[in-house]
Amino acid sequence: MAGAAQYSDERAREIIAAHMGLEGPALPILHALQAEFGYVPDSAVKEMATALNISRAEMHGVVTFYHDFHSAPHGRHTLKICRAESCQSMGAEKQANDFLARQKLEWHQTTPDGSLTVEPVYCLGLCAHSPAALYDGEPIGQVDAATLDEIVAEAKGE
Amino acid sequence: MTKIYIPLDMAAVAMGADRLAAAVAKEAAARGQQVEIVRNGSRGMLWLEPLIEVETPAGRVGYGPAKVKDVASLFDAGFLTGGAHALSIGVVEEHPWMKRQNRFTFVRCGVIDPLSVADYEAHDGFKGLKRAFEIGSAAIVDEVAKSGLRGRGGAGFPTGIKWKTVADCAPGQKYVVVNADEGDSGTFADRMIMEGDPLSLIEGMTICGYAIGASKGYVYLRSEYPVVAKVFQAAIEKARDAGWLGQNIKGSGFDFDVELRIGAGAYVCGEETSLLESLEGKRGIVRAKPPLPAHVGLFGKPTVVNNVLSMATVPMILEKGAKHYADLGVGRSRGTMPLQIAGNVKFGGLFETDFGIPLGTIVNDIAGGTRTGRPVKAVQVGGPLGAYVPVSLFDLPFDYEAFAAKDSLIGHGGLVVFDDTIDMLWMARFGMEFCAIESCGKCTPCRIGSTRGVETIDKIRNGQDVEKNIELLKDLCHTMKFGSLCALGGFAPYPVESALRHFPEDFRKSALEAAE
């Protein structure tokens, strides 16, 4: 994420405290932490365990269960490419594999300059416009090789 | 002032609707034209998105798919008064795709401004809730039961029975939970209704809360739908501001509020018990049933968990009466089904129709066949855990029981069409791989079975003991089907077994190639 804030325990505690009035606050807190810092640092997991009065192991178990949360910073931009059936019916699998080969990347990897992380996603609900992708939260329908390459160029250019 | 509609629907945005709306506003200003741009939901004719609609005395005239580069020529052609243009589809309501439908759940979607309470009310919104307040809890539950409404998430469980179970529990804290974790490929109906008519879902939840005695409702939405999150959150606030949520709703003495929660990319959280675990802030691991969530649900309290579409259909059932809905459909599949037509098709989109329409009519006629122009090979119906149906079964009527009789399921009504270039062995492998990635890990058949499934299919691919490994694969499928705790492991065999049954040649290609 562009412009993610530097991590501090104090800020993490503020974010956690702001959500403690909710029923079952863990996921909202994790989303808020990741929105603020770009990832969920281990120190923040420790703070959460204390606040929620559960063991660190249990908290770790929650964080690692969900694909969305990551424990180290990602690239400044994120490209999610759909691999689900509908997109596969329009050749998404080959298109994605060719793209990854061109960029010398594997799924979940970040370009060496730290500009872009590429992740698989299993359905964006854009199945009438397959194949589809999501770039920093912006949906793209009927994506082709040229568009994917433009995204890399744009991510690197910033 | 001319009213122009440009959808905010995520699929329309993915095809450039935001840029189009900005370009239309700019061009209108440059030409000194007074226009009001309403960001509506989608009509469901997704191949035409972004579809611009202009209000004229003759009705709403549509132009699509419109790109930024078309804007100047649209103005030149006088589209503000419905002028002729290459992109014109005429009056939208008269379009053949629209005219063939029977829109019930989706009647307002694409028509109204989704974030205007006044517009919603002008189109019969909140009439169902008003009637609910008049007739009371028992009569509401009775009405929903008599309508024959069934879950739209896949299992097709009767909604009325669920509600009655919770309503009959002792008074105290109860919850309404809406499952908006629409993770299946080829489905987007939940997304469309939440973007195009979010107040109908809020109204349905309030009716449910009133019927069962709950004061709090949660909507659990998947994180892959960022546009929905924005629109739905705004809709909650609009409803609250207008007094349709909160304390003493419209003087009824009933308090109810709705909270939106976002998931975190775990497919299994679409399963109702794992969804509840996730809402509670835990790992999204499935619970053994019983106890049913109706008895021991969210935070251990009695809970109704419904799919978005079932809940959004309730207001209309209350407004028009159970009989009106029950008279539609076929057999035990009452009412309408919003079909989601996707994949390799010419005319993809959302088509709501009574149950009972033959599969072949949907694929060849309504969807217009494949986008690539090649012959259809298979249709996966009901999501990644649904069966692949071959062309030879195209006379199957769209109805829960008819599909079940052929070892298939209609699930939530999503259809993904494939042309003859698809390799069914590969799709079977993908089905197992997906299950392995997304398994919550609690039960062995799902966790280990899916991984062994991938390995076994790879052996078949490599031509290694093909017949023996096909038998092993069938055995694995059987174990997963009958030994798994929830539908993820239990249904993952459907795509694999159907691929094996209907497309056996795709599993023996390696052996054939080796023999040549």
Automatic annotation (TrEMBL), chain A:
Record's keyword terms, sorted: 2Fe-2S, Iron, Iron-sulfur, Metal-binding
Metal-binding is among the record's keywords: yes
Claim: Endoplasmic reticulum is one of the keywords in the record: no
Cofactor names: [2Fe-2S] cluster
Alphabetical list of SUPFAM superfamilies matching this protein: Thioredoxin-like
InterPro entries the record matches: NADP_DH_HndA-like, NuoE-like, NuoE_N, Thioredoxin-like_sf
Gene3D superfamilies linked to this entry: Glutaredoxin, NADH-quinone oxidoreductase subunit E
One Pfam family linked to the record: 2Fe-2S_thioredx
Matches recorded under NCBIfam families: PRK05988.1
Family: Belongs to the complex I 24 kDa subunit family.
The protein's name in its UniProt record: Formate dehydrogenase subunit gamma
Organism: Methylocystis iwaonis
Record gene name: fdsG
UniProtKB/TrEMBL annotation, chain B:
Assigned keywords, A-Z: 4Fe-4S, Iron, Iron-sulfur, Metal-binding
Swiss-Prot/TrEMBL cofactor(s): FMN
Top-rank taxon, per record: Bacteria
Record-annotated NADH-ubiquinone oxidoreductase 51kDa subunit iron-sulphur binding domain positions: 425-470
PROSITE patterns: COMPLEX1_51K_1, COMPLEX1_51K_2
Keyword Oxidoreductase: no
SMART domains listed in its UniProt record: NADH_4Fe-4S
Pfam families: Complex1_51K (PF01512), NADH_4Fe-4S (PF10589)
Family membership noted in the UniProt record: Belongs to the complex I 51 kDa subunit family.
Name recorded for this polypeptide: Formate dehydrogenase subunit beta
Protein's organism: Methylocystis iwaonis
